[in-house]
Amino acid sequence: MARLVILGAGIAGHTAALHARRKLGRDHEVVVVSPNSKWNWIPSNIWVGVGVMTPEQVTFPLAPVYAKTGVTFVQGKATCIHPEGDAEGAQPYVDVLLTGPDTQGQSQKVPYDWLINATGPKLNFDATPGLGPNGNSLSVCTYDHADHAARGLDEAVARMQKGEQQTLLIGTGHGTCTCQGAAFEYLFNVEFELRRRGVRDKAKVIWISNEHELGDFGMGGMFLKRGGYITHSRVFTESLYTERGVEWITRAGVKEVGAREVSYETLDGEERTQNFDFAMLLPPFRGVGLSALDRQGDDITTELFAPNGFMRVDADYSGKPFEAWSPSDWPSTYQSPKYKNIFAVGIAFAPPHAISKPMVSAKGTPISPTPPRTGMPSGVMARQVALNVVDMMQGRATEPTRHASMARMGAACIASAGASLFGGTAVSMTMFPIIPDFEKYPDTGRDIGYTSGEIGLAGHWLKHLLHYGFIYKAKANPLWVVVPE
Amino acid sequence: MNDDDTSATNSGDIRTQYGQSYYPPVPTRFTQALRTNLLWQFLRFLVINARMLRMVRKH
After folding, report:
1. Which residue of chain B has the CA closest to A251?
2. What is the pLDDT of residues A309-330, one digit of tens each?
3. Which of A233, A266, A455, A457 has the most B C-beta neighbours within 10 Å, making it the best mutation to test the interface with B?
4. Residue A285 CB neighbour total at 10 angstroms
5. Can you give the residue ranges of every domain in chain A?
6. CATH 3.40.50.620 applies to domain A3-123+285-363+371-393
7. What is the pTM of this model?
8. Phi-psi region of A343 (alpha: psi -120 to 50; beta: other; left: phi over 0)
9. Residue of A410, A454, A457 with shortest CB distance to B36
10. CA distance A380 to A410
11. ipTM of model
């Protein structure tokens, strides 16, 4: 009997657990370690953040699903990996600080034979003074944060209904943020709600972002075939902002969030400020802070993890200049180069470099997006890694045989721009590959035949269907496996 | 907003176009109406689904 331990129960970790459990016989054990008792369909948090959904609609308890599927659930936070065991024995294990209601504060050793790290990010609000729900801005990164943001929005709307003018600032709260797409969705859902609640004329809505141009989304933008032209996503994004009367500040690294004002630095080195009455600013991400010790108890964290706290896998971390980037730099098996029984998927793996070109201000401050690796790619790589591990656990393979490089993978994305069954809209996008390949597609970096984008009500219907479809799948209901990642 | 990127429509004064170097396209009313037209959007729903399934099959 072998034991697979999965750290994290988000989109990547939960997907890996369900696929591994489905394929492994009962003579092998699958263990999930997660500090959270609930699974959260994070893409719908933006609807919680404007009050059109409740936290209960985007979450469900994990324990009953794991009890049903035969997965062992340990509610706790992994703190340290011992990949060689310790002085008492060679069995690898993970130190876990338990977080359940009855076990809070206790620690537990969780032994493993195979380990998948899917811990996701630490929301690094501390990187910017005043950033976050404990400071002066709001967030939609968790369902609790989003619920808090909805109440903040209600208060701002109430002030507008009394005749006050309000400035709403939405975007990224640091020069190295990722997930611009989530902030983009929240921006346009807020703008839509303001119109629906009849106070749009009282609101000045401003986007602030570390992107070099609108439409970058941390993906270096993309080229689309539309109306007989091949056009950059910047054009369509600026069109939407203009149509909805949203102002924008790009190339900005937020340095401090005050009670009613953000200070930011621009790429040309200027220090500027922007006042606000309501601010939703995303934090930068970093690894969750896992450490690692070898058998002698010596710290080997830097051998397993990159300086940003994400886990090193089969990628090229040599730090090439932008001009030398290659699709082959990106990992395909997500296997640790040092310990072959350890893998990292989703946000937990360390990307070899950004997708958007790195930019540094005249004062030396990095102001450009770090690469997104959430949603569909997270699910796909989690499934492939889980199936590889299953093959090795069952003796059918000695090394990973399936590959899931983001440079060979496409993505479909629906970005909500207003939630309403008949009046809502969303941007439906597809792209292939996620990592631009200028060797294969020298003009655009991606296959124009597979890269598309359009806005309309159909996108909203689809996003709504995906909400229910993915929650159905995550609950491991009958035929869940036919719902694609 | 970047000074050289201000759109005429966004600034509310079309005459400022002589001071600009770039103008985002703005959809016509017809284009906007199509975005929420039920019949057209039902067709687009089928097309988008087909496009995404094609993407899923590619990997």
Report:
1. B2
2. 999 999 999 989 998 999 999 9
3. A457
4. 26
5. 3-123+285-363+371-393
6. no
7. 0.94
8. beta
9. A457
10. 10
11. 0.88
